[in-house]
Amino acid sequence: MAITAQLVKELREKTGAGMMDCKKALVETDGNIEAAIDFLREKGLSSAAKKSDRIAAEGTTYILEQGNEAILLEVNAETDFVAKNEKFQVLVASLAEQLLAAKPESVEAALELEKDGVKIADQISTAVATIGEKITLRRFEIKTKTDADAFGAYLHMGGRIGVLVALEGSTDAAAAKDIAMHIAAINPTYVSREEVSAEEVERERKVLTEQALNEGKPENIVAKMVEGRLGKYFEDVCLLDQTFVKNSDQKVRDFVQSTGGTVTGFTRYAVGEGIEKREDNFAEEVMNQVKGN
To answer: What CATH number matches the domain at 58-190+260-270, 2.30.30.230, 3.30.479.20, 3.10.129.10, 2.40.240.20?
Structure first.
């Protein structure tokens, strides 16, 4: 497979490794990004052990609770300035109300919903014409609970990060919000170890084993070291294994148990994660305009 500059750039952004190291890793793995990430980690060349998508697009996350139902959604705009626009915020709130009422199965289905005879897709188009920037409904998640449960809803930095979690078997809304705040801050991938696939655990074990061997550790103690480091990996990615941000002497698991409830899932959105932002070259743009004239 041809190793393009764009591929090298993508790997560099995801790992923080040097340009030549990224190119070598891609050559060694025939252009497979995930395998190249593992290659760099095994060689100790990656400064980003946990993959972190580049935050690019602007917009906001928003949460609406109505009784035993709640929705978290992300709506994108081109600039942070527009994201703070009152008309944009009114649109976002209206979209949340419509989606929570209709509960569509996908964004595509959501865009077909109508309010007063006007589809959501057209509502957004009208806002685009008024505000002057591209606006998109990117994603949403609807959660339900019973009267015996509590929602934990938290918006960080005015909606740059949104978290919605249900604390089942407990009506302690304050505790549920504390859990949501922890998720916003630490960004776990799973609730518990049981959710991590055997394939992912084995992949991590292989990377950790290669790291230890490359560090020159004796083979007879590598296996024990790897299991210890695997425990640290679970702390990084599993909510219940993490140290609670509001009490460093307590695990999240212990805090959740103290409420009498359980957490079986959560949704965390960070505005623009995974969306590649257009990079403007203003000098080139000006030159093109001059040539055009």
So the answer is: 3.30.479.20
